[in-house]
Design a protein that fits this description.
heterodimer, A: alpha/beta, nine-stranded mixed beta sheet, two-stranded antiparallel ribbon, 6 helices, 13 strands, B: about 325 residues, alpha/beta, five-stranded parallel beta sheet, about 30% helix
């Protein structure tokens, strides 16, 4: 089975101090100084795909894993790790524009790659990423490919030929389905899905293969159905009164008597 | 603006979602010049009167379906609404509402936005606001193409207004035989009938990575229960399997609007904070005085969260014994 996992590398926004959040006239926020890491939901998608391959290999079923990102060279360290983890191909598409709020353009690039360059049975990706928070890219990609989409996926395993067993969450609980490929899996809070670390041996043996790069020039962002008009930094502050005391017991006592006791009494 | 509300009465959470949508409409579509109806998707066995009560508009179209399945719902909507003059579709918050909004907009060559906090119709069409940059920033977007498909952000129990209810069913369709889900060969649903207690609890304790490990998280859960609080965790703690995923608090988990929240060992990442910001009173316990949760709390204790919670537990236990 051919599986493509799309991933994005995002700045670690929690490292920003309150004063760093400044919106400029072009509706940009400087996050260039931050360390980048895998988008947490894409990380779960990548590990889910690796687990799928482990299970398929136990059944002597070949699985071809590819990974795709729309990013600059900041994604290369992650891309090299994926090669070391025996992803068969890792492809980086140069972003044709500022992709922060362009889920339609991202979905167009992914679906074009699948349609023109590498036929796939399954596409997996995290349900949303940190900056755009659009929660649209997987859904739009599925629509553009004309594939069904399973959302809030928490696990996937091989079933019989061209079928897979997919676990997901819904508004009402859990869902286990056996589905026929092709399909798109939008991965959410998958348990135990931190991406495994490649061994030094695997890094040496597999991690030095080239990252394939591509560019698509004809992406028209004016076709994006939504356009950003404004950004306003959210300032979430309350009193922030610090409770003083010598040691945790005394502080707990002050917290209880001065703040909690009266509030908890009617509950 | 001509609008349609799409409700999924196959979900046990339909009434809450309807009340949330009704509150959203009350805040953003209350001025004159808007007219609309409701499309109610419901399983065969659901009583018509009960379902109609959820409708935020007087008239509704009732569609009987086998279960919630997005491909079938989209096919059903195409049958009912394909080529209609509806300008705005309002879908519920939650996973189903979000996926339907995006996919329906694509199929109708419209535009969509999900997790929306506010909409504003204007002569040019519609603008909508939602959280971006991991909930640190609000982005305002212009939706360029009609129909506009919107799914609001989940707001917790505090942002719900039960609708007055519909008065008439304009039309009823039986679309239980739809088979757009033919790619699904086997399906097993495991419903969780109860609304997560975290969502409706009046007192919550939310633990983060500052707890320091799975055993300490288990201890904090025990203390929370002894104090009469529901226990939740941040996403990193849940991903480290320190607690079950249904304990996750924040934008990708439960949004709580408890009266009292103790945030123990959480840094105050915006995605977590968005899940507790509607709480009446927030107490933070953290070793780092510069952690964002300290500024986001009403009161803060700078110390080890496990030690402070143990002390709080002993204090409350003693009070109980003295009674």
């Amino acid at each position: 089975m051919n599986i493509l996992v799309c991933f994005s590398v995002v700045p670690e926004l929690e490292m920003m101090f309150a004063e760093d959040w400044v919106v400029d006239a072009d509706l940009h926020i400087d996050v260039g100084f931050l360390k980048c890491g895998l988008n947490c939901f894409d990380e779960s998608a990548l590990e889910t795909a690796l687990k799928f391959r482990d299970a398929a290999e136990q059944r002597q079923r070949p699985t071809c894993l590819s990974a795709l990102t729309i990013a600059g060279s900041e994604a290369d360290p992650v891309a090299r790790s994926l090669l070391a983890l025996r992803f068969d191909r890792v492809v980086r598409i140069d972003p044709p524009t500022d992709m922060r709020f362009h889920p339609f353009a991202a979905a167009t690039l992914i679906s074009r790659y699948v349609a023109r360059h590498a036929a796939q049975d399954v596409v997996m990706m995290g349900w949303q990423s940190g900056i755009g928070q659009n929660a649209q890219t997987p859904l739009l990609t599925a629509e553009m490919l004309g594939w069904p989409c399973i959302t809030q996926v928490t696990g996937a395993a091989p079933a019989h030929r061209r079928h897979l067993a997919v676990a997901s969450r819904t508004d009402d609980g859990r869902l286990e389905q056996t589905v026929q490929a092709p399909c798109l899996l939008s991965v959410a809070n998958a348990p135990h899905s931190c991406l495994r670390v490649p061994t030094l041996k695997d890094r040496m043996r597999h991690g030095k293969r080239p990252i394939e790069t591509m560019a698509f020039q004809d992406i028209d962002t004016a076709a994006e159905p939504i356009a950003l008009c404004a950004l306003h930094v959210i300032r979430r502050t309350r009193n922030g009164v610090c409770i003083e005391g010598d040691g945790p017991e005394e502080k707990a006592k002050a917290l209880y008597h001065d703040y909690l006791k009266q509030r908890l009494a009617p509950l | 603006m001509i609008f349609k509300v799409i409700l999924n009465a196959c979900s046990a959470r339909a009434a809450e979602q309807a009340a949330e949508l009704n509150a959203f409409m009350g805040s953003h579509l209350s001025s004159d010049g808007h007219e609309g109806g409701t499309v109610l998707f419901a399983p065969v066995q659901a009583p018509t009167g009960e379902i109609l009560k959820m409708a935020p508009t007087a008239s509704a179209t009732l569609v009987r379906v086998a279960r919630y399945q997005p491909e079938n719902f989209l096919a059903a909507l195409q049958t009912l609404e394909g080529g209609s003059d509806t300008e705005l579709y309002l879908f519920p918050s939650g996973h189903a509402g979000s996926e339907m909004a995006v996919r329906w907009a694509f199929r109708q060559k419209g535009s969509s936005l999900v997790q929306v906090q506010a909409i504003k119709p204007d002569p040019e069409g519609l603008t909508a606001a939602k959280a971006v940059y991991a909930d640190h920033v609000t982005g305002t977007f212009r939706l360029r193409r009609k129909p506009y498909c919107i799914s609001p952000a989940r707001g917790g129990a505090g942002r719900r207004t039960p609708a007055a209810g519909g008065t008439q069913i304009d039309a009823e369709y039986d679309l239980t035989g739809l088979a757009a889900d033919a790619f699904v060969k086997k399906v097993r649903e495991q419903p969780e009938t109860a609304v997560p207690k975290l969502e409706t609890a009046r007192f919550v304790v939310v633990g983060g990575m500052g707890m320091g490990g799975r055993e300490k998280a288990a201890r904090l859960q025990h203390i929370a229960a002894a104090l009469g609080a529901e226990f939740g965790v941040s996403r990193p703690a849940a991903m480290n399997a320190w607690a079950a995923l249904d304990k996750l608090v924040g934008v990708s988990g439960t949004m709580t609007s408890a009266d009292v929240c103790i945030a123990a060992g959480v840094s105050g990442a915006a995605a977590l904070y968005a899940g507790i910001e509607n709480c009446g009173f927030i107490a933070a316990i953290n070793t780092d005085p510069r952690a964002p949760i300290v500024k986001g709390a009403d009161a803060a204790v700078i110390d080890d969260c496990n030690a402070v919670m143990e002390a709080l537990f002993k204090l409350v236990e003693q009070k109980e014994r003295d009674r």
